Amino acid sequence: MSNLRIAIQKAGRLHEESMELLKDIGISIDNGKDQLKASARDFPVEVFYLRNGDIPQYLRDGVVDAAIIGENIIIEKGNDLPFVERLGFSKCKVSIAVPKESDASSLKDLAGKEIATSYPETVKRFLEAQGISAKLHIINGSVEIAPNIGLADGICDIVSSGSTLFKNGLKEIEVLLKSEAVLAISPKMDDERKAILAKIQFRIQSVLKGRNSKYILLNAPNDKLDDIIKILPGMRSPTVLPLAEKGWSSVHTVISKNQFWEIIDELKSKGAEGILVCPIEKMVL
Ligand SMILES: Nc1ncnc2c1ncn2[C@@H]1O[C@H](COP(=O)(O)OP(=O)(O)OP(=O)(O)O)[C@@H](O)[C@H]1O
Ligand SMILES: O=P(O)(O)OC[C@H]1O[C@H](OP(=O)(O)OP(=O)(O)O)[C@H](O)[C@@H]1O
Ligand SMILES: [Mg+2]
């Protein structure tokens, strides 16, 4: 039987959370700091530890079948490659920035100027779409220093908190794209491996739904139950169980992490007490 070959980043921003996701979907492997390949103990999967930037070519060649990779790298180096899941971590932007005293306020204002970047294909695509040209300096790291050393008028790089821009006296003037970790796949996968991938996708979806939801339990007087239940979305409808104390019930349900604080405030105002909030490991609908 074939193994599904999954690539993850060997070291860097994506490594830890990729390992964590694999663990959460039941794929246990040894930490790969000193190895390039590991087999899962209980699933037909091999994990390859690679450089993020090299992964698109491996997918294209069919040397690996799937990969956890930054969407920005797929856009830069593998725009032809499909991705099948957004994974919700390593969220960042790829942005244009200029020295904070510059008059430029969009990519258009850099027409005819010099831009330093590690993402030349992405920048070229945006320049072409806007019908402008600029000179690109391709550098692999510390891009934010380029304007300060006179190498470029602006940069295109990853922005997350914005602190690297701030420390280098730069300001963001245009967001080219937003990125997060994704599960990308090889166009060359055979049917046997596609079947393993389908199982993995199902597991990933269950884990991500769980991560985005909270299980809540609360107590309420019976005469307030109708009002409280109206507030709760729930998977189907909330579970209501009688408490030992007469006239009171316990209500259990699942709510989305995003709505969480608003719903808790409303529940309290409608008479809910003893609200417990628990993480959900996996959720299968
Ligand atoms: N500051 C950040 N905040 C959030 N996500 C980020 C940040 N910097 C990078 N990323 C995301 O993590 C990915 C990996 O970044 P990292 O700097 O670890 O490696 P890299 O230099 O892009 O890749 P390689 O593995 O080829 O060395 C990026 O492609 C991007 O998707
Ligand atoms: O907006 P911020 O939160 O400051 O994050 C942005 C910085 O993070 C990344 O660099 P990283 O720390 O990965 O270093 P690298 O250049 O060595 O990859 C990216 O290249 C930016 O420089
Ligand atoms: Mg980096």
From TrEMBL:
Keyword Coiled coil: no
Activity regulation: Feedback inhibited by histidine.
Pfam families recorded: HisG, HisG_C
Residue ranges of domain ATP phosphoribosyltransferase catalytic in the record: 51-205
Biological pathway: Amino-acid biosynthesis; L-histidine biosynthesis; L-histidine from 5-phospho-alpha-D-ribose 1-diphosphate: step 1/9
One Gene Ontology MF term: ATP phosphoribosyltransferase activity
Top EC class, one word: transferase
Keywords: Amino-acid biosynthesis, ATP-binding, Cytoplasm, Glycosyltransferase, Histidine biosynthesis, Magnesium, Metal-binding, Nucleotide-binding, Transferase
Residue stretches making up the Histidine biosynthesis HisG C-terminal domain: 211-282
Catalysed transformations (reactions): 1-(5-phospho-beta-D-ribosyl)-ATP + diphosphate = 5-phospho-alpha-D-ribose 1-diphosphate + ATP
InterPro entries per the UniProt record, alphabetical: ATP-PRT_HisG_long, ATP_PRibTrfase_cat, ATP_PRibTrfase_CS, ATP_PRibTrfase_HisG, HisG_C, N-reg_PII-like_a/b, N-reg_PII/ATP_PRibTrfase_C
Gene Ontology cellular-component annotations: cytoplasm
Needed co-factor(s): Mg(2+)
GO biological process: L-histidine biosynthetic process
Subcellular localization(s) per the UniProt record: Cytoplasm
E.C. no: 2.4.2.17
Family (UniProt): Belongs to the ATP phosphoribosyltransferase family. Long subfamily.
HAMAP family: HisG_Long (MF_00079)
Listed PANTHER family: ATP PHOSPHORIBOSYLTRANSFERASE, ATP PHOSPHORIBOSYLTRANSFERASE ATP-PRTASE
Reported function: Catalyzes the condensation of ATP and 5-phosphoribose 1-diphosphate to form N'-(5'-phosphoribosyl)-ATP (PR-ATP). Has a crucial role in the pathway because the rate of histidine biosynthesis seems to be controlled primarily by regulation of HisG enzymatic activity.
Protein known as: ATP phosphoribosyltransferase
The species this protein was found in: Polaribacter gangjinensis
